[in-house]
Amino acid sequence: MASLTKHFTTTLERVEIFISPRYFTEVNLYGRLYPCKTNLPTLTHFDSNGRIPFKEAMEIGNFTPTKVGASFGPTWTTHWFKVRVDIPESWLGKEVHLRWCTECESMLWTSDGIPLQGLSGTERQSFIISSNATLEDLRQTFYIEMACNTLFGSGSPNMISPPDRKRYFTLDLADIACFDRQVYELIMDFEVLYGIAKHLPRSTSRPFDALYVANEMINIIQKGDFSRESYVSAKELGTKFFSQHNGESQHKIIAIGNCHIDCAWLWPYEETVRKCARSWSSAVQLMERYPNFRFACSQAQQFMWVKENYPALYEKVKYFVAKGQFIPVGGTWVEMDGNLPGGESFIRQFLYGQRFFQQEFCKRCKEFWLPDTFGYSAQIPQIMKLCGMERFLSIKMSWNLVNEFPHDNFFWEGIDGTNVLVHFPPNKTYTSTATVQEIVSAIDKLADKGRVSCSMLLYGKGDGGGGPTGDMLERIKRLHNVDGLAKVQHGTPDQFFSIVEEKHVNQLCKWSGELYLELHNGSYTTQAKMKFLNRQCEILLRDTELLHSVLLAACRDEDKKAYPELELERLWKIMLLNQFHDVLPGTSIEDVHKEASFYYKEVIKGAAGLMDTAVRRLFGVPEGRGEEEELVLVNVLSWQRTELIRVPWYKDEISRRMWIEGVGKAMQNVSNEAGGGTLVPVVVVPMGYQLLRGLSAVKAPVHFEQRKDGSFFLKNQFLEAIINSEGCVSSLILSECQKEAISSGCVGNKYVIYDDIPLFWDAWDVMHYHLETGRNAIKEIIEPLKISEQGPLRVSLTFRVKIGMNSEMKQKISIDAVHPYILFESTINWEESHKFLKVEFPVNVVSPQATYEIQFGNLQRPTHGNTSWDWAKYEVCGHKWVDLSEYDWGVSILNKSKYGHSVRGNKMYLSLLRSPKSPDAKADMGKHIITYAMMPHSKTFQQAGVIQLAYQLNYPLHIFPTSHLAKPGASHYVTNAHRVLPLEMHESLSWFQVSDPAIVIETVKKAEDRDDCLVVRMYESFGGRVHVVLRSCLPIQKAVLCNALEDVVESSLQKVKWKGNNLELSFNPYQIISVLLYVEV
User: What InterPro entries does UniProt report for this protein, alphabetically (predicted)?
Assistant: First the structure.
């Protein structure tokens, strides 16, 4: 019956107090949840300090007595406990729990080393020893592995602060207790009734119905003195309420458990391995009790960690994958950043991820799963589709700071026109707890009312692990079909997307271009070392694969196994791990970035070793010096290029021959400070090699003049520049059209420093108001501008200045005889706090759009702030170049390791360094080497060669000595461990080239599953349609098209023909095409 008075609030609070774990527990229902408790008879402890396996802990553990109330630490240490359980015989037939509560994370193990369940502080404190205790259950021994960190690390004073390394954690609870399942069922009934009463609108009768039912249930229990009979009667009343079902028109929510675990963030990689085990073992426990429970899990790397470190748990995972309860999603190696990785890195995330899931579970993932990444590149839709996916899920766009994203279900169109289906769960989180409030909120916030009839609910503790709990599942059970609420049912991502595809695709809107997150845009710049090392690794792995692929094609069949496939895959996976969305963006603690730096250097060392092996086999690189030695120049790019190279002085014979041949041609000595040697111009064939013999002539030598005001005039065949005494560019004229690139009254290469104090997310965010604080970064000239290198091929100026309060910069400004840009090379010792350093170029260009390189293409963004969507893009991501152009004229900024950009009006900015203090107090402190270039051009940036020159800046020529002189018609013999392989050596040879400059060969690699196939991946970079010819001198038999997972495109079998040494292909704008080339055996 209804309460005797009509006071909604007091009645509601009565219900709340009746099930409160904090108030009146001596007389409320919650206080009867554990009616019987007893202490553990023995509890002993072993401080292992480091993270060690169970077996090792048992072998070396010296367990000594401890007790509740003791503290353990410090942060990042590990402690093991031996727990003996003695269940009283009076508890036979009862449900018995082991209860354990600390402020940190723990794992419960059996005595024979089987991981049972995570025990994660307040989130999960109990383990069901037995649901119906028998004699066999009475005496048991367990082990508990305590990790001295919380779910979110150990930051102090707040979550994202650097870890408190001296923190200790208290053992607050350790006992066994009888669990009253009947009381628990009632508590969950009350909780849901309370939620309905509190959160449904009072304009309907339903919240009143729920409140009065709950109120009467309390009366029944209290009048019955909490007897079993009163529990039964109250339960019947609640069941009757929940049996009142919805109509057919109610919205359907597909509830999917998940446990988003950051591979590293506020804790190191090694702790994530244990977080996966704690979280997944808990999920498996729930699957055994709730057969309808579905749990989605991404990141093949984490599956691999569990497989390698917890084989017994992994077997359970495989069992539940087969049952359809444990659902692999995402298809990538990790949940990577969505903007910073290169295009080929994106593809390898899918390639290695999908191959893992196929090999382990005989299925590929259907849904791309990036719930927490900081924005999404406009090339992702095409990459997804090429990797067999046309469905995408995220929630991160709900974090937009300025504009509310208008869709929850929509088609996302990439720069090539590819469309994929997208869902953003309307309650805007992947860590729902499945409460009534969240169900109501999901419908209130649904952006597509009337267009779709279903949505996803992602529930489970996330980021630091934890996952779903029994309470969440009990709520979902009661919310299955309750009048007044959306229908909630367990399901899978595939079920959800299938419903949308079958019923709602014609009602969905389209979003074209990038999904730009209006937050976390400082992550394009934070931890510059991560970005620098990542790009180095991407380049080196690509080049190494190319050389080994050429070697494979030239080898005889029995030698093709020499291709270092496993080692290359290992190195790729290390780099892909570091591209996780809190590592590469620079938003992790110091320990993580130190570890990531070590991993990057391991990749660099490993790839360099593999490249050395390939070079020795291809070119016969000598072990020592000799008169027969020559230099081989290797161009890894698919077009002919002109460069300056430095020949070391110790190559005496080479230098002597060059000086003889170079009479009358431009040559230049290089100082010892710059490495020493001889600077010479060369022209190298596309994607191939060339012996350094005849020298290339230059059209005009470089010229300079020093002026009385301390400025310098520099000139080459392309440019005329004036560099003022502070190292700024006061004039830059493109010779061919005599147009001035620098805006009147302004200077380029101006270093600007900003105050950089975000609202909360320190390493992540740069706020729009930082733009109001910009000022000249140079505080003092330490060494004035001077000539540091001069000659017909290159002139360099250097100066040294104090920047900011505590930092120093030395910069070299160069102009040479072969490149149409000014090159800036800065060495900065950065010691600032909450400052942001940029370099500014005010240019003589008017355009409403600037163009930025992204993966496999480019993207335009506004230079104005007409709308909130426009001005919110005050800091954006680009890769190797950005261009601002008007008709027939423009300026580009090229770079070697930077990603943060901004173009506002006619001012172009390259973001260089930040200095946040959390979660890493030392972020970006220390030495940085930064390289960028300013390039004015006529015509379009495509016609001017901006794309190619940016590649060349990042992909230098490789220079190797060879001991085999090439003579026309001569054979070159390369020795390996098995046999001598004849490879014809020429003065120059192009392995691959393409007939149109719009096409870039991005990758040449061995096919994953065949030793007689190469994969050549190309893309159209200009944004147009083109018909091209791919040529190769390698022994190719046939060609077929494949997708990015290297599945043959069946429709191409009749259309694509390898004729002679040619393959004709047609590209659409920004299209990526992969070709399988079968080599002769």
Answer: Ams1-like_N, Gal_mutarotase_sf_dom, GH38_C, Glyco_hydro/deAcase_b/a-brl, Glyco_hydro_38_C, Glyco_hydro_38_cen, Glyco_hydro_38_cen_sf, Glyco_hydro_38_N
**Rounded distance between C-alpha atoms, residue 528 and residue 520, angstroms:** 15
Whose CA is closest to 1040, among 1075, 1071, 1007?
1075
- HSE of 588, CA atoms in CB hemisphere, 13 A: 27
Q: Which DSSP symbol is given to 27?
A: T
- Write the single-letter amino acid at 606: G
The amino acid at residue 480 is H
If DSSP states are collapsed to H, E and C, what string results for 427-480?
A: CCCCCECCCHHHHHHHHHHCCCECCECEEEEEECECEECCECCHHHHHHHHHCC
**Collapsing DSSP states into helix, strand and coil, what is residue 840?**
strand
| Active-site residue flag, 372 | yes
For 749, left (φ over 0), alpha (ψ -120 to 50), or beta? Answer: left
Q: Largest Cα–Cα distance in the chain?
A: 111
Cα angle for residues 210, 214, 216 (degrees, 5° grid):
120
Across 138-172, b (16+ Cβ under 10 Å) vs e yields bebebbbbbbbbbbbbbbeeebbbbbeeebebebe
Alpha-carbon gap, residue 564 to 954, rounded angstroms: 25
For residue 1073, give the nearest of 190, 92, 416 by alpha carbon: 416
- The pLDDT score that the predictor gives to residue 671 is 76
- H or E stretch covering 583: none
pTM tops 0.90, yes or no: yes
DSSP three-state, residue 207: helix
Contact of 478 with 436, CB cutoff 8 Å: no
How far is it, in rounded angstroms, from Cα 132 to Cα 721? 86
Residue with token string 């202490």: 39
Could you give the CA distance from residue 361 to residue 332 in angstroms, rounded to a whole number?
15
Least confident of 349-353, 597-601, 699-703, 780-784: 699-703
Positive or negative torsion for Cα 305, 306, 310, 315: negative
For residue 33, what is the DSSP state? Answer: S
CA angle 130, 133, 136 (to 5 degrees): 100
- Angle of CA points 111, 116, 119, to nearest 5°: 110
Rounded CA-CA distance 658/694 in Å is: 8
The catalytically annotated residue of 262, 372, 582, 756 is 372
Query: Would you give the distance in Å from CA 125 to the centre of its chain?
Result: 32
- Here the tokens at position 392 are 């995408």
Both tokens assigned to 53:
């396996």
pLDDT, one tens digit per residue, over 285-334 is 999 999 999 999 999 999 999 999 999 999 999 999 999 999 999 999 99
Amino acid at site 481 = N
Nearest Cα to 881, choosing from 807, 949, 805, 975?
Answer: 949
